[in-house]
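Reply to thread "Modeling small-molecule complexes from scratch"

Following up on the discussion above, here's a worked example others can learn from. I took a protein sequence and the SMILES for nicotinamide-adenine-dinucleotide and predicted the complex. Inputs first:
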Amino acid sequence: MERVCNVALIGQQFMGRAHSNAYLKVAKFFDVPLTPVLHTVAARDQEGVERFAQRWGWQQATTRWREIADNDAINLVDVCTPNDVHAEQSIAMLEAGKHVACEKPLADTLEHARAMKAAAAKAKGKTFVWFNYRRCPAVALAYQLVREGRIGRLYHVRASYLQSWGGPDTPLVWRFEKKRAGSGAHGDLNAHIIDLARFLTGDQITEVTGGIAETFIKERVKPGSKSGERGRSDVDDCVVFLARFKQGAVASFEATRLATGHQNANYIELNGSAGALRWNFEDMNLLWFYDNQEDARTAGWRRIMCTSGGHHPYADAWWPDAHIIGYEHGFVNMTADILRVLGGQQPLLPLPDFADAYETQRVLEAALLAAKHRSAVKMSEVK
Ligand SMILES: NC(=O)c1ccc[n+]([C@@H]2O[C@H](COP(=O)([O-])OP(=O)(O)OC[C@H]3O[C@@H](n4cnc5c(N)ncnc54)[C@H](O)[C@@H]3O)[C@@H](O)[C@H]2O)c1
């Protein structure tokens, strides 16, 4: 008999679409031990959530997300809401015995993140956090190459996540409100590259040695306001910080929504004694590898198209070599691993849970403290 996983989704816009697509596609492309069923979707606007349910094939739609906790049929709850409600919703679902997959950053504040970690530690259900970029095949290959010693001793991590949509004409959506988002580009974008750096290196940050958090645009038009009423944009537009890893590497991180000329340049580079790796999401199928063992006459950056079934992670599930994949496939790949874990199997690569994402949240906090106090912050000071 087919084993199923009844899923409930909270939030139905950007991530709601990306995740719905993943649940619809995953069992078509992967042999997963459980087939997801799109059971219930919850969001705030009745008409919108009903339309969404119909379009994407969710069986039920509601504006009362708490009903999901009482529904014994639901196995996995997927939290795709603004950051300030991640804790309340995830904890309620964990207490009801559900598995929870929550969007990143884990929470708006470190305090909320800590409560989520504690709830996860007590819960029967498993937790996952949607750091989806881990599951781009090129990133997954980088993870494997690092573990095979192909870059040797690590000296540098250089990570930046550059976007440009946050100019003065962008309205005051929740992402610019501290009480809803917690932080701006920092929690949104630095969260991803801190996770990538921790994931790829397998190492932990021990100190943030300095940081700058800047809000360039302090007021924005309220969404939907005909009279042009303005409100305070009180999150960072950019955060830049420097850090040290336990095993000695030094790192730089930069996240901004005002990097004119860049749309979604999620970039990471590792430089080691034996080689180097670099990846940019805007060319997500490519991994660049520099083999420092090569003959100096022919050494150079190697462009690896990470689409070869049988060789590259997740590539088997998709298309013939160099028939490239895109943004949404990272979510499908991650959903396959979540279903493997829930079905009692191993994921292809480690999945971030609440405890893991809490460590990323601590680094976010340390960077903000370093910027605020203009001083170094040891991670041991950030609990
Ligand atoms: N993994 C990624 O790459 C990625 C990309 C974008 C966003 N995100 C994260 O996903 C989350 C959602 O972001 P988004 O871009 O989808 O936002 P969005 O604004 O597009 O959608 C938010 C949804 O949440 C619903 N919602 C808001 N408050 C609610 C509440 N109290 N109860 C129930 N529903 C509520 C809204 O109705 C809407 O459907 C955020 O945490 C964000 O950081 C992650």
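What I'd highlight from this example: Residues 4-132 form a domain with the Rossmann fold fold (CATH 3.40.50.720). The longest strand covers residues 205-214. Questions welcome below.
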